[in-house]
Amino acid sequence: MNRKTLVLAAAMGLLAPVLAACGDTDSGSGDGDAIVVGTTDRFTASEEDGLAPLDPAFAYDVGTWNILRQTVQTLMVQPRGDGEPVPDAAESCGFTDAGNQRYSCKLRDGLKFSNGDAITAADVKFSIDRALAIKSDSGVFALLSTIDTVETQGESEVIFHLKAADATFPYKLSTPVAGIVNPDDYEKNKLREGFDIGGSGPYTLDAEVEDNEIVRAVFTKNPSYKGALEVNNDKVELVSFESSESMGEALEKGDIQVMTRSMSPEQIKKLGNAAGGEIELVESPGLEIRYLAFNTEAETVEDKAVRQAMAQIIDRGELVGKVYGSQAEPLFSLVPAGVTGHNNAFFNKYGDPSLAKARRLLEKAGVTTPVKLTLHYTTDHYGPATKVEFEQLSKQLNDSGLFETDIEGIPWKKFSPDGRKGKYDVYGMGWFPDYPDADAFISPFLDEDNFLNSPYSNSEIRKDLIPQSRRQADRLSASDSFTEIQDIVADDVPVLPLWQGKQYIATRDGVTGTAYALNSSSTLQLWELGRGVSG
């Protein structure tokens, strides 16, 4: 049989994993043998910047969130299929008023942290208040920004009073920043250093650290876990590799059983075309996007005509075709296709690439050409094709004669904080949504306290359109607000969307549950993995 499994999209505009080939959704039974999973994500604690990579009040990238989702429990959790979140640490949750501003949760009976301490409503309040008080420069606290106060009633009820209606609030309670932490282990106003985690999730963590970096994360099934997730194994080890090539070699040798992000386009193509053998490629729709971010106060790009000219020149189809092939598709908005509220705002405004239109934009604004720019990218976070992608972007801009660009690659541990500090005029970023809703592609970029720390601000978006969209419990009814926001972004170009990608897992025979091991937001769901005979 062809060893490529497709996980197709469900209806209703949201991407849900539904197996369409080999019947490998059987849960399998945990047999005590660790399932070893490879990743190229790096988990580094920087003494210089005082980073606390695994503190829920700080962590805000897909790699660290994938560790936290295994270990730190939240009131709500994303279910199989990416539908609306369901209670996890909570027994029940819901809005208790007509205006979607009072949200109440009742905790499950018998909840315990992994060290045996009982969990109470006061611990939930402490965890949420702590993230808001620390207000870390990663910007993750902004996910909780609609909270006004947190109230407890007795030992088991938590009531969130919101500043304004927020129909997306249940989703936000399913993200790691809302994770419940033990007050005995976490200080109220200070981030936790190192790699220790105290939670009540489906696993406990034992981190093997070398040179201030996790090289192997050992997840052991937490016997005290009470929640909505079914854990299909006793132990999973997550191993961090320096390159996709070394990760692929480990899979071929059997040193690991599962390979996750990030694989190279060449690896994906090779595995997808292979027939028979012991390794299977699982392909599923994804909501990952890539884009250029701008420091709109930087002298080189502060004139929006420069940013508009770049939007007019860049040929997304050519870029995707030369670098990623069928593994990605051009993206013309912050909100990707497959999410309710998406439109093709950039194509509607700029149409096909046009040198003549770009030249007129710059001439009308009085911009001297060629515009000299450095395009910055990270060397070790989004996969090995990133450099090739930026070489193509630079070539397209330079071939126009209107730009003179070069590229510079920086390791993620420096790239990420420097980007937030405004040290780059133009830089490439990826985004994995916090939850499968258009709001997760809008607010983190454009609202106050956005994670990019962008100087760009549009009062209509922040004061009117985002609040309007959050008042709509029926997310389809929010589409008009999202359309207006996307049109404004296409005109102002504070960010320039490039493409959205599919996602892949490669696995050896005998590992089950791979169809659900990643959800559309690239959340790694290690509890889904098991051992058995796949179909």
Automatic annotation (TrEMBL):
<keyword id="KW-0813">Transport</keyword>
<dbReference type="Pfam" id="PF00496">
    <property type="entry name" value="SBP_bac_5"/>
</dbReference>
<feature type="domain" description="Solute-binding protein family 5">
    <location>
        <begin position="84"/>
        <end position="450"/>
    </location>
</feature>
<dbReference type="InterPro" id="IPR039424">
    <property type="entry name" value="SBP_5"/>
</dbReference>
<feature type="signal peptide">
    <location>
        <begin position="1"/>
        <end position="20"/>
    </location>
</feature>
<keyword id="KW-0732">Signal</keyword>
<dbReference type="InterPro" id="IPR000914">
    <property type="entry name" value="SBP_5_dom"/>
</dbReference>
<protein>
    <submittedName>
        <fullName>ABC transporter substrate-binding protein</fullName>
    </submittedName>
</protein>
<dbReference type="InterPro" id="IPR030678">
    <property type="entry name" value="Peptide/Ni-bd"/>
</dbReference>
<comment type="similarity">
    <text>Belongs to the bacterial solute-binding protein 5 family.</text>
</comment>
